[in-house]
């Protein structure tokens, strides 16, 4: 059992964030005025059905996409007005990404996949340290084809955290995994959040995963529908779906 302890320091602050995509003569409103604060060191889960805007919001927070309007503050920097050069540096130096699909290079071992990031980072862990943090000490020299889906996702997490990012953004990290394997991945994310103090956002359509978060942010129709603080956080091993 773990009690809630959300930091008071705001890492991300969004106000009035909208995102409109032009589809021919039609406009698709993916985000409709999102106001949200994310705090240092917290593990939050963003819930919502497909089309609710959660992936769009995550991509904007990570500098992979830009808002149509509004303000996205990372510390004292407004990402909405940032140049491509500034956004590239932001992604490189501050953000780690974990996606539903692992995007590992099949011809490289787990250790080599992680070293791709450590070789270009300012203050990285060693690949060995990062892989040990996700419980893959014994699998470092295996190729992706020799690893299970859950192990491949944990390599992807190791790759994301090896540069010691301030923020870890995870888009459906268990979406391609069964419940038991997904729990192992969530345990790795929870361990990283606790040990490194990395602000961690997990987006998912699976409401059960929200039980392990400090805060659960519900998105619906491109807006924040509710924010719930868990008085008791479940350990990943307690989750079943």
What oligomeric state do these chains adopt?
A: single chain
Instruction: Please count the beta strands (DSSP E, at least 2 residues each).
Output: 12
- Give a short account of the largest sheet: 6 strands, mixed
* CATH architecture assignment: 3-Layer(aba) Sandwich
From the spread of the alpha carbons, the general shape counts as globular
- Tell me the radius of gyration: 17 Å
Order of helices and strands: EEEEHEEHEHHHEHEEEE
CATH class: Alpha Beta
Q: Which strand order spans the largest sheet, edge to edge or round the barrel? A: 7-8-9-4-10-11
Question: Could you characterize what this model shows?
Answer:
This protein has helices spanning 54-61, 84-94, 110-118, 127-133, 149-161, 179-196, and strands spanning 2-3, 10-23, 26-39, 43-47, 69-74, 77-78, 95-98, 167-171, 199-204, 215-220, 223-229, 232-233. With 241 residues, it is of the alpha/beta class. It has a single domain (2-238), classed as 3-Layer(aba) Sandwich (Rossmann fold). The strands form three sheets. The protein has a six-stranded mixed beta sheet with strand order 7-8-9-4-10-11, with helices on both faces. α3 crosses α4, α3 (110-118) runs parallel beside α5 and α4 (127-133) packs across α5 (149-161). The longest helix has 18 residues, at 179-196. The chain starts with a strand and ends in an 8-residue tail after the last strand. 41% of the residues are buried.
């Amino acid at each position: 059992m773990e009690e809630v302890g959300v930091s008071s320091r705001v890492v991300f602050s969004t106000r009035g964030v909208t995102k409109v995509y032009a589809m021919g003569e039609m406009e698709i409103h993916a985000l409709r005025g999102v106001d949200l604060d994310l705090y240092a060191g917290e593990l939050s889960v963003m819930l919502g059905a497909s089309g609710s805007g959660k992936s769009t919001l995550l991509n904007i927070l990570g500098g992979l996409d830009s808002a149509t309007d509004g303000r996205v503050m990372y510390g004292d920097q407004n990402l909405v007005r940032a140049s491509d050069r500034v956004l590239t540096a932001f992604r490189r130096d501050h953000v780690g990404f974990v996606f539903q699909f692992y995007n590992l290079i099949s011809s490289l071992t787990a250790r080599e996949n992680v070293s791709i990031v450590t070789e270009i980072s300012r203050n990285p862990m060693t690949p060995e340290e990062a892989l040990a943090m996700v419980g893959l000490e014994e699998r470092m020299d295996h190729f992706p084809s020799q690893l299970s889906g859950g192990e491949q996702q944990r390599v992807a997490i190791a790759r994301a955290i090896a540069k010691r990012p301030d923020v870890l953004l995870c888009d459906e990290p268990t979406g391609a995994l069964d419940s038991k394997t997904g729990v192992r991945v969530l345990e790795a994310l929870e361990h990283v959040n606790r040990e490194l103090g990395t602000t961690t956002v997990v987006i998912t359509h699976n409401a059960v995963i929200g039980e392990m978060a400090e805060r659960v942010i519900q998105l619906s129709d491109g807006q924040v529908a509710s924010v719930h603080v868990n008085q008791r956080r479940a350990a990943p091993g307690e989750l079943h779906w």
